[in-house]
Design brief:
mainly beta; globular; nine-stranded mixed beta sheet
Length: 254
């Protein structure tokens, strides 16, 4: 999410592990191509800059889909705060945090789909968290912490490697993670789903969650299921070790 830089170029974020920012992703309108985001971000009084993720893991470039962000609103203590977009870096938003304020509230609408970039259908949606967060500028993604939540469309299920899920109705709250881990932990959801338990050894396990546009797409041949079940054990045999306790794969059939 950030280009390489010396450690002393990063500011200390007040969104630490003991006081994380919160991210509530309301995905109930995902079938219509919309996500609604509510965040609380710890902040200190004075000039403050929010940024939308630009450098995306796996893409190795400044490819953050800024067109996703719409209807940005920032407030503190119930009062709207004025913000100004940077005139050079369009991923940055400048504002002033009032005195006596320790956190700001951020809301925006995420526009999911675009030509050649479809992230949701009527029955399936993919959540890459970098699309639905803002965070303090000039901080390192391993030093910023977040507590994410998602509100699912009625009757949908989800799959993700995010830890400590607690579900109440259609809302799922996850444990606190670094911003680095959040962005590296996509979440799939859908109306029709299937889980395959691939491998387990004590507390360690590997699963794959499959989501499909049509229920019949989940009628997977037993031979294919067997191959899916083999690959975790085969990987451990190939490398002679594993560096994970919980491996969660996601697959969409759409």
């Amino acid at each position: 999410m950030l280009p390489a830089a010396a450690a002393d170029e990063f500011a200390a974020s007040p969104a630490n592990e003991a006081n994380p920012m919160t991210v509530v992703l309301d995905a109930r309108q995902a079938p219509r191509g919309l996500m609604y985001v509510r965040m609380t971000i710890p902040a200190r009084p004075g000039p403050f800059t929010l940024v939308y993720p630009k450098w995306i893991p796996g893409e190795h470039g400044p490819t953050g889909p800024l067109r996703v962000l719409s209807q940005l609103r920032v407030s503190a203590g119930g009062h709207a705060l004025a913000w100004q977009r940077d005139q050079v870096d369009l991923y940055a938003f400048h504002l002033t945090v009032p005195s006596g304020v320790s956190q700001i509230d951020v809301e925006f609408t995420g526009i999911i789909n675009a030509p050649e970039d479809v992230m949701a259908t009527k029955n399936v949606a993919i959540v890459n968290w970098n699309r639905y967060i803002l965070y303090q500028a000039d901080t390192h993604n391993t030093d910023v912490f977040a507590k994410p939540s998602v509100i699912l469309p009625a009757g949908w299920k989800y799959g993700t490697a995010l830890p400590d899920p607690r579900q109440n109705g259609d809302r799922v709250d996850f444990g606190t993670v670094s911003l680095e881990t959040l962005v590296d932990s996509p979440l799939d959801m859908g109306r029709y789903s299937k889980r395959i338990d691939q491998w387990s050894n004590g507390s360690a396990s590997a699963q794959i969650d499959i989501f499909a546009d049509k229920p019949q797409d989940l009628n997977i041949d037993a031979k294919v299921v067997k191959e899916y079940k083999n690959y975790a054990a085969e990987g451990i045999a190939l490398y002679g070790a594993r560096h994970w306790n919980y491996y969660h794969a996601l697959l969409t059939l759409s």
